[in-house]
Amino acid sequence: MSYSGGGTMTPSQDSEGAPARYKDGEDAALAAGGDIRAFARLYGSHSGRIFNLARRMTTSEAAVDITQDIFLRAWEKLGTFRGESAFGTWLHRLAVNVILARRATLRTERSRVTDEEGILDVLPGRPGGSDLGMDFERAVEHLPDGAKTVFVLYDVEGYRHEEIAQLTGVAVGTSKAQLFRARRLLREALNR
Amino acid sequence: MMCPHMDAQLNEYVDGTLAARDRASVEAHLAECAGCRAAVAELRSLAAAAATLPKSIEPGRDLWAAIETRIRQRAPRNVQRVWWFGALAAAAVLVLAFGIYRLTARPPDRRMGEGWVAVQADFDRATDELGVILAAERGRLRPETVAVLEHNLAIIDAAIGESRAALARDPANAELRRLFAAASRQKVELLQWVTRVAAS
Lengths: 192, 200
Known about the structure:
The complex is a heterodimer.
Chain A: H1 11-14, H2 18-32, H3 36-57, H4 60-77, H5 87-109, H6 132-141, H7 145-156, H8 161-168, H9 172-191
Helix pairs in contact in A: 2-3, 3-4, 3-5, 4-5, 6-9, 7-9, 8-9
Chain B: H1 7-15, H2 20-32, H3 34-52, H4 64-105, H5 112-137, H6 143-169, H7 174-199
Helix pairs in contact in B: 1-3, 2-3, 4-5, 4-7, 5-7, 6-7
């Protein structure tokens, strides 16, 4: 279930498969040498996935700034990309690190405390026939930070618990506990 | 209502991460517990909903222009680095040039051995300094560039090693001194070029 493709997983790029990955690798090498146009192409291929990840793990408002920070960090760190994994995978991991660091700052700035389970009360009751997709997105958005991180990385992005533990600095058991907590909260919210 | 003590097991059951024995135990429980069966159905529905969430959503506005501006604003740092590395490389070349001048311009005398030792030390110091710069910036080079660089450095180092060994035996030999000087210049020029490329 390990996340493996980064930007290559978007529908428009699936058909390109391996060539898209090689193109990314070539652009990454050019960008590492200072070629901004090559980096612009990488941005074009991956911005949607990175913005979506940032939006889901923080807020839509914060995601705009965070996405810019992620690509700036990627530009600075391109020299460390060795091509051992797909560029999309490398970028995604870098994005998770930037998002987690930024979210720690955001947490101290926010007045609301999101680590309380009652936060799902912000969701309106779902009358029969309403859009489950929208409710689901909103419910995920309002999960407590720890539970949301693991839920997004495991259930949405396909990371394994071992990878999440490494990225977030928690034990594998804690990652599992946060996932189960997230699912319980989501079930409660969506069943109201 | 799900049995509270089954929470972790049901989640792992749905994830398919339970060992065969534990899976059989959960399935036996599910056969008798309607609440846990309903919970499993909900967990599966949740996993399906998560899988259908969009993986890619473009930002509401184009962020590239702002990113490019910020990258270009940071460029002066690169320029600074280029200048700094250039200065270091130039200093290394000066040290080397002076040493080579001493070695090739002075007529052979009994103190030539001492001069040769000093030039060797200067050359080692100069190439070490450039080597440190190169090591720090190596990650910015493309793998193909590194491969070609290492190949050429190996050839030059072999020439330097041979002329150095010959000079140790015959320190007054002017041709050997010129050979050593030419190989040394080549090495410094190559290191200079590569540090410039890495820093740009």
